[in-house]
Amino acid sequence: MTPCMNGAVVAVEEHPDNEGECLCGQQNLLYMYTIYNSEKQETLSYIGSQCVHHFKRQDLDVQVSVFSQLLALKRAIEDSKKITLTSDYFSRALLHWLFAEGAFNNERNGYNGEGDYAFFLEMFNKRKKEDISDARNKKIWAMLNFQVKPFIQNHPALG
Fold this sequence. Notes:
Elements: E1 7-14, E2 31-37, E3 42-47, H1 49-53, H2 58-78, H3 92-101, H4 114-125, H5 134-154
Antiparallel strand pairs: 1-2, 2-3
C-alpha cells in the first residue's frame, strides 16, 4: 500500500453482515473507510482499519476512531436511545470533528459555532455532570436534539 502523505479519512460505511472487503483483499470487514489522498488527488476505497494502521499515521488512526464513534452514535440515534454528552457517545476528538464539519453552526449563532463548540467541550469535560445547571442541561439537550442528531443522521460521509 502506498503511503498517504496528505490524506484524510473522508467517509466510512458499515457492512451489516461483516462482509465488506478491503482494497488489499481482506474480507469480512464491518467498517470500510474511504481515504482521500490530496497529494495524488485520488480516493482509496474501501480500506479496513487494520490497513489504515499500516500508514503509521496517528492522525489517520484518530480519524478512524472518530468515524467508528460516529457510526456508533448514528446507530444509537436510529435506535432511539437517549443520547447524553458523556464518553458513552462522545470524545474530545469527536466533538472537534463535529465542530470542524459545521455541526454547531446555526442561525442563532450567526453560523459561527465556535462558542457552542466551546460550551459543549466545557460541559463534556465536567467531571461532576450533576453540577451542571438546569439551564445548561436544557441547552445541551436542545443542541443534541436539534443540531447534533440531525447533522449526524444526514451527513453523507456516514453511509
